[in-house]
Amino acid sequence: MNIKIEKKKLYIIGSILIVSVMIGVIAYYYTNMNSVEKGYEIENKKNFLNDKVAAVYYSGSAYTPQEGSYTVYIDKKGVASAVRGDAIEVGTIAQGKNFVVRQNEKEVLMIGGNLKKFPIKHKVHTSYGQSSGYLNKTNLFYFINNQGFGEKQYNSLIRWGNQNNFREKIIPGYYVSTGNDEENIYVITEDMDTGKVNFQSINVSEKKVFLNKRIPITGLKDGNWSIASQILINKGLAYFIVDNQSDESKKIQLKIAIVDIKNQKFKGTYPLGTYNIPIEISNLASQFTTNNFIIKDHKLYHLAANSYLYTFDLKKMQVAESYPLTRSTKFEDQADMTYFGDSEIFLLEKRESGNFEINSYSYENGKKIKTIPIKGLEKIVNKHNVFQYDFFMINRNRE
Predict the structure, then answer these.
(1) Which pLDDT score is estimated for 39?
(2) What's the average model confidence in pLDDT over 36-53?
(3) What is the largest CA-CA distance in the chain?
(4) What is the distance between the alpha carbons of residues 337 and 67, in angstroms, rounded to a whole number?
(5) What is the model's pLDDT at position 21?
(6) What is the dihedral of CA 37, 42, 48, 49, to 10 degrees?
(7) Is residue 343 within 8 Å of residue 360, measured between CB atoms?
């Protein structure tokens, strides 16, 4: 009789231990996941952005909308928290005037102070990659999205507005690059049938959008050149990077292309540099994000896929020095996203271990300045079939 009682006690104790372990595992998993993935209501907190230093945008493709998108915010301690949204392939986020702005399929959300949501009529499932921005002079945010072929032409959708309202308009064209001068938007279009490339400015007011006359960009098709950057405007001139990769040699050539906005004329291209990528690592040496150059003090700095900074003197209109960033030159560590700050270059890098960190580098010599290890970002990447499409440091919280 006593033996049976003892066995019963052991059984009860064992059951309690098993249940306790299961509860602990579930609680740990739930807490661990929820420490990373959050509901959009966290963006509604008045001071939500106050301690955030960076934002990253991940999304599923147009063919895997069930994966959704994740806007990941990284705070000053390196802790990542993600907000799920609709999947927008090659999607983008924007910042300006103390706001971060993102899109869903049929709405625009402004984060900063109280969360504001603006419903939109047209549905978006694909963008152009870092094709958003903020026009400081007119206090307008914008997003340019890919709408595919219409009845007569290829169409895009521009969404624009501010904390008062957001509007949208279907505009013609397939866009391969975008930029702005804080007042107007500039785009490069490519004709899907002829391959012709044109430069165009877009005037945006609070209620209207107007597309100006196109300026032909000649010579790119004949030389098999591709647009490889965003557009930057400096003193009435538009700059962008073009590249050419030989299928046979893996040699990549870089040039700067310039458009005279005032005189409505393409000025031509200027050599910037050439480099080779060894065949065994060529698949890891893809071009950095389209936001891959900056103009500072009459000098252009371009970060190429080989981790070198190529510089160009805009006064003398000639190539200046080039030098590597002090990061891995063997591409063990991936760095797909860049952000050019006023005084340093930021790279979102994935270590060979699978962990992420933000590293900053000097414009002057390429040396590493500081590192921010990121906690939790790998959980988003490993759990979901999503791709990294946008990244920036949040300017309002920069030291």
Answers:
(1) 62
(2) 82
(3) 103
(4) 21
(5) 40
(6) 50
(7) no
Q: Where are the alpha helices (DSSP H) in the chain?
A: 2-34, 377-383
CA distance 276 to 326: 18
Distances (CA, A) of 39 to 72, 81, 93: 12, 10, 18
Structure tokens at 91: 């999607």
The pTM of the full predicted model, rounded to 2 decimals, is: 0.87
- Distance, CA of 353 to CA of 345 (rounded, Å): 23
User: Which whole number is the average pLDDT over 345-374?
Assistant: 92
Please tell me the predicted confidence (pLDDT) of residue 31: 38
107 with 159: CB under 8 angstroms? no
Q: Which residues pair with 317 in a beta bridge?
A: none
Copy the structure tokens of residue 137.
Answer: 């002079």
Q: SS3 for 397?
A: helix
CA angle 247, 328, 305 (to 5 degrees): 35
How many whole angstroms separate alpha carbon 203 and alpha carbon 213?
A: 11
Contacts 24+ apart (CB under 8 A), 280-289: 281/330, 281/331, 282/250, 284/331, 284/334, 285/331, 286/336, 287/228, 287/243, 288/335, 288/336, 288/337, 288/338, 289/129, 289/130, 289/336, 289/337, 289/338, 289/390, 289/391
Task: Provide the sign of the torsion angle of the four alpha carbons 35, 39, 40, 44, taken in this order.
Answer: negative
Share the mean pLDDT of the chain: 86
Report the distance separating Cα 103 and Cα 110, nearest Å.
Answer: 9
Residue 40: exposure state from Cβ atoms within 10 A (0-12, 13-18, ≥19): middle
Among all chains, which residue has been given the structure tokens 């310039």?
Answer: 258
Q: How many residues does the chain have?
A: 399
How far is residue 350's CA from residue 390's CA, in Å, rounded to a whole number?
15
Helix (H) or strand (E) holding 310: strand 308-313
As a whole-number percent, the residues of the chain with pLDDT over 70 amount to: 83
Report residue 119: phi and psi, to 5°: -70, 145
Half-sphere exposure (Cβ direction) of 242: Cα atoms closer than 13 Å: 21
Distance CA 9, CA 7 (A): 5
